[in-house]
Amino acid sequence: MTEHHHHYPSGDVPSLFGPSMGRTVVQVPQSAFGPAPSAPDSVRTPLVGRTPLVLRDRREVMRGLLAAAADETGRVHVLHGLGGCGKTAVAQAVFNEVTRGGRRAGLWVNASERATLRAGMLAVAADRGAATAELAAAHTGQRASADLVWHYLHSSTEPWLLVLDSADDPEVLGEGAWLRQSPKGTVIVTTRQAGSPVWQGAHLHHLGVLPVEDAALVLRDLAPDAGSAEEAEKVARRLDCLPLALTLAGSFLSRQLLESWSMSDYWRHLDDDPTKLIDQGSVPGDAERNARQLVGRTWGISLAALADAGLPESASLLRLLSCWSSDPVPLSLIRPEAVNAAHLDALDPPLTGAHVETALRGLLDHSLVSLVSLDVGGEPMRCVKTHGVVLDSVASAVPEGQRPLLVTAAAELLQGAVPASGAPTREAHRVGHLVPHAANLLRRVEGADVAGHVAALGTRLAAILFESGDFPAAVSLAQASATAAGQWLGPDDPVTLRAAYQAAMSLFRLGRFEESEALHRQVLDIRERVLGPEHPETLQSRQDISEPLGQLQRIEECMATLRDTAEIRSRVLGAHHRDTLHARALLIEHLSVADAVDEFDRVGPEIVAACEEHLGDESFTTVTARHNYAYGLYRLDRAARAETEARRALKGRELVHGPDHALTLSAAVLLSWILGKLGQVEESLSLGRRVVLGQERALGREHPYLLATRTGLAEALAAAGESAEAQALARQNLPVCERVLGPDDPMTVKTRALVG
């Protein structure tokens, strides 16, 4: 046994590898803030979160990046897009592919912060051969760090691929010239910022959400037993096909122990608290370590960066956008003057008209929103679009005290785009793009102070949709408005009743006559009790309940309500007031149905003449009176006289409503029936075919009016010798008649006979 004693001069550091004599002793680098950041555990392996089992879609961008890594050198490729869209996953897939088999060295650096970027790049220099003393000098500021790293990258004996991941603050790369080109390798950067000058000369690749088919496959990759392909597509659409949300959802479904949710169960629960549910798919304990893997926190990284860059108002603008839906929002809604009028300067941070432009640019630069063009009435409209998962998570994080102000302001801004009452019905199609935003606003209401304003806006939009003939959208929005108003204001509040009345009107147009009559009755009873029997809104309900009553064959009750309405209005408003004449115009049709021939002959021409004299030929009420009078003449077998009135009615309907409106099609089918009776077969059949196609679009394929029109056309075709077309139409109609009307309904029986 030999004993050795080693004595070191003062200041030397003992080493397990021998004395310091003849060697450079490297001290732990120090800075004014303490020790320098330690090197990452590896730069040869992507130290990132979970990796997808299969990289779905991204085929085109993958081909381009693989070709660049294999065939070209010296280029920088920037993958940019919304947080959670899979930029890191694509970079990792490219990294794994090009490093397989040692064909190329792979180097991976976390570029999310200055400290991690610097430490990672110096570790890259060490990997490429930098000496310990050189690294120490770089650490202590005695040598330019970026120059050292790129010297060794340029001098590398093997080709390489360098990934700079999560470079969401490009200035970090730009300030130290960390981003350069080299003839020895290819650089891939992942970032949320697309518009930075740091990317000048780089090849940019935008990553968006997945196609719905691929998005559904992501869910089924992770949870293959949770549901069918159709159920997976439904969940994928609800998550707006965002890869991060899909991955979290699939992970949640695959890891359940106490419950066993299907994808349909997951879809139903998403309406409760989508952000909280989605984030339950994260790895337990991972929230603080990797906020980028949570939909409830990843957007906060971008908003914090914007605040640090002097754009805190971007957060307030995004909160405002979260009050609306993920559908495109017209830029005209957030004009500076409109924003100032909505008092958004009371927010924290304040949003003013002077700063809305820079706030929007900040959101665009960080890929939180995108600019799109929307076709509205054949004209392009510039809009801003935000991902639905982003909006849900941002909305859930809005401070409690700011929510009423945001919802009220969003309603005021939306109201500015809604046509005023009395606008031409043919212009109403221009509001369709606003409907999803009004519907989402109703879901954001959390108090009575804003419920009335938002519900009134929804009801107004529903009325415009009704006038334009979009009855499904009208009933949906009106019912949502009635629900919100009823919850916060009560069932007897005028705002609630107006919304419910509009829903009843729309239900009638959809052929849901029993539901319409029941809702009309409910509103009428409350209005009579609260407002009184002669209030204009009470009389409105009394008049319009006649519509479903007539279709339900309760003719005497129908006529009684119209007579009562006309009598009260005549006494209160005058005999020639528009509302009085409208109630009388509606009565004409039912007089013929009730075979009240003498009264029909006496009052029908009188009412039409009074409408023409006091309201004009182009009035909605005049057109309605003429249409109903023509129908009565047809029903009473006066086809020759009916033709003249029906042609005038059709012309009036086209003028007032447009050629494709349900009421215009009703006038067209009436003229078709009349022409058939008069032996004008060719024009009759042509009109009938036009109406069938139009009603399929306007009313839906199962509306009772469409079923009657199909059967009538099939009868006319059979009578004209067009047996094949008649039978084909009857075969198409029969199963729908049996399902909607019942097997013993007269229309079903008639259709069945035509099939035979």
Give me some keywords for this one.
elongated; 756 residues; 5-stranded parallel sheet; alpha/beta; 57% helix
Architecture overview:
- It is a single chain.
- With 756 residues, the protein is α/β, with parallel strands linked by helices.
- The protein is 57% helix and 7% strand.
- It is built from 34 helices and ten strands.
- It has a five-stranded parallel beta sheet with strand order 4-5-6-3-7.
- Strand 1 and strand 2 form a beta hairpin.
- Helix 13 crosses helix 15 and helix 18 (435-444) runs antiparallel to helix 19.
How does the helix and strand content classify structurally?
A: alpha/beta
Number of DSSP helical runs: 34
Distance between the termini: 115 Å
Percent in strands? 5-15%
The strand line-up of the biggest sheet is 4-5-6-3-7
Number of strands: 10
C-alpha Rg (nearest Å)? 36 Å
Helix fraction, binned, reads: 55-70%
Low-confidence stretches are 4-34
Can you summarize the main beta sheet?
5 strands, parallel
